[in-house]
Write a structure and sequence with these properties.
The chain is mainly alpha-helical and 601 residues long. It is built from 18 helices and 7 strands.
């Protein structure tokens, strides 16, 4: 497909979509306006039911006229003014009733039919601020007005559903053409970018780029198949390497949502550790500990499944579809852990599971004796996570031969382990020599950490250790968020038993829905913070650049413009031309190292 044709298609499609969206917005505005009038007029209908139920013909036989008014009267002063002026105009020959409707006042006026023109003239006085009823209902009786407004609301909903169906059909019809047009544009953009970075002459070109080291032979074979056997592929000289080595994160398919989360912070550096797998394990785990409820966990997993289903069925490609699918996968994993921890804590909708005899395999968080074990568990969890991060940081520093970083991280790890061992020995009433022996690595670690900071190491070393202790204590938020969730659920359950049945159930459902919404966001935000700030800071330097292979969108394929891939989603996140293999066995990110870059012809 020629991209110039895509411009025409997109412009025409945009007009069609905007027309449907404009009609949808107009109908929604009319629906919302009528709904407000129906609410006010329904209240008026109960004021004088003997008259409000009469039709226009019945009122005419009685010589009466009835009109409903909606006054912009938040202070309540206009109603009294209007009643006074009506009495001056028609004496006692009228009936006037009003009811509060928020900032407005709904009023019902019954008057002799022959006096109606004078009364309507009074409605135009400057002192009286009316909210005009739509013209189609201006001179109808209250009963007729309500009947027609309610019928119109039903018709409006049908029209809105029809427009939504038209938009959905339009998307299904145009999606293949949009996908083809986008693919063509991506290919041309990719080729233009390659030309801009190439050195060209009349007979040759020189293109420097990065490819995967283990795909060099495959690149050669692909060029031969495409009839480009005269293109030479050689390793770039050391002085001509095109910038720092990029990094490609590969691995298990289940880790793909967490690569996006790692990228939100920063990309790992070459030869650094890939934290994706660790995040795939610990992020749902921490999320599940904080939610810790069987029902909430199952509901969140269901929401995650719905997000994934919606991403697939609506064919939402690109960034939107990718994010929706990834969010669904993370929620499913977190929800599964929440169900497991709900069984451990004996929680289902807070105290409801406990009240129904659901046993806690460990302890119930809502009980008075739960605070101490929960806080100890949170600190132990933080200690384990930080020690793991420091260990990974030490391994990375040793592999790189970074003496400064090795002393800093190794010293911090020694202090943390030694101090923990000394505290444990003191609590267990171990002999004093055991406590002193445990303090030896802590003292050595303190000296090592301080030594890397030079003359002011005696000050900065202890401060850094205090910061590490703060990192551990930061995991107390795991307990805090979990307690807040269970206490809110317990409040909902208690209100359901204290209030009248229907009101109590209504309030309980609202509070549980609120708690579910908070459970979907707050624990996830806190779990991400613990990873980004506390955990990753111990080993993740994040100085890398993502690998963007030349030809990812098909620019190296001579038939790319004519044969867009049918199985690829709409959007920029497309599969590379050369599929990646697994991560190296040691779990590092050095899969892209050699600049196989010089192409000559």
């Amino acid at each position: 497909m020629d991209p110039r044709d895509a411009d025409v298609d997109i412009a025409t499609l945009e007009l069609e979509v905007e027309s449907l969206r404009g009609a949808h917005a107009s109908l929604e505005e009319e629906r919302d306006s009528l709904a407000r009038y129906v609410d006010v007029l329904t209240q008026l209908e109960t004021l004088v039911p003997e008259l409000t139920s009469l039709s226009d013909a019945e009122l005419e036989l009685l010589g009466l006229a009835m009109t409903a008014l909606v006054l912009d009267d938040p202070a309540g002063s206009v109603v009294g003014l209007l009643e006074t002026q009506l009495r001056q105009l028609v004496g006692d020959g009228f009936m006037f009733r009003s009811t509060d409707a928020g900032r407005t006042r709904g009023c019902l006026l019954v008057v002799a039919r022959d006096r109606l023109p004078e009364v309507l003239g009074l409605m135009g006085a400057d002192e009286i601020s009316r909210v005009e009823v739509p013209e189609d209902y201006a001179h109808l009786s209250l009963h007729t007005t309500l009947v027609q407004m309610r019928a119109r609301l039903v018709d409006l909903q049908d029209d809105l559903d029809a427009i939504r169906a038209d938009l959905e059909a339009l998307w299904l019809r145009e999606a293949p053409r949009l996908r083809a047009a986008e693919h063509a544009l991506l290919v041309l953009t990719e080729r233009d970018a390659a030309v801009a970075t190439a050195s060209l002459s009349e007979r040759t070109f020189l293109l420097r780029c990065w490819i995967r080291a283990d795909r060099r032979r495959q690149v050669r074979e692909q060029l031969d198949r495409d009839g480009l056997a005269d293109v030479a592929v050689v390793n770039a000289p050391a002085g001509e390497v095109p910038g720092p080595s990029p990094v490609e994160l590969t691995g298990r398919a289940a880790w793909s949502p967490y690569r996006r989360l790692v990228g939100f912070l920063s990309w790992p550096s070459p030869n650094g550790l890939d934290p994706t797998g660790l995040m795939a394990i610990f992020l749902p785990f921490l999320f599940g500990v904080m939610v810790g409820d069987v029902v909430y966990g199952a509901a969140l997993a269901g929401i995650g499944w719905w997000l994934r289903h919606r991403a697939r069925t609506h064919d939402r490609g690109g960034v939107e579809g990718g994010v929706m699918d990834d969010a669904g996968r993370v929620l499913i994993a977190g929800g599964a852990w929440a169900v497991l921890w709900g069984v451990m804590f004996g929680e289902a909708l807070g105290s409801l599971g406990n009240m129904w005899g659901m046993p806690a395999l460990w302890f119930y968080r809502g009980g008075p004796e739960a605070l101490e074990p929960l806080l100890l568990f949170a600190v132990a969890l933080g200690w384990s996570h930080i020690v793991l991060g420091l260990t990974l940081g030490l391994v990375t520093a040793l592999r790189r031969g970074d003496r400064h970083r090795t002393l800093e991280v190794g010293g911090t790890l020694a202090v943390l382990l030694g101090a923990t061992a000394a505290i444990a020995a003191a609590i267990l009433n171990a002999p004093s020599w055991v406590t002193l022996a445990a303090l030896v690595p802590a003292v050595v670690g303190l000296v090592a950490t301080s030594s890397v900071h030079g003359p002011i190491g005696a000050l900065l070393g202890p401060l850094e250790l205090i910061g590490t202790v703060g990192n551990v204590l930061s995991y107390l938020r795991v307990a805090a968020v979990g307690l807040a969730s269970v206490y809110l659920a317990n409040v909902a359950n208690e209100l359901a038993t204290e209030l009248p049945l229907l009101i109590g159930l209504f309030v309980a459902v609202l509070l549980h829905l609120l708690n579910l919404g908070l459970a979907a966001f707050s624990p996830m935000v806190q779990a991400l913070r613990l990873h980004y700030v506390e955990f990753f800071s111990k080993f993740h330097d994040g100085e890398g650049q993502a690998f963007q292979p030349l030809g990812a969108h098909g620019a190296l394929n001579p038939r790319a413009l004519l044969t867009p891939p049918r199985d690829r989603p709409l959007g920029p996140l497309l599969t590379p031309t050369f599929d990646p293999v697994g991560v190296p066995p040691h779990g590092t990110t050095n899969g892209v190292r050699i600049a196989d870059a010089t192409h000559e012809r």
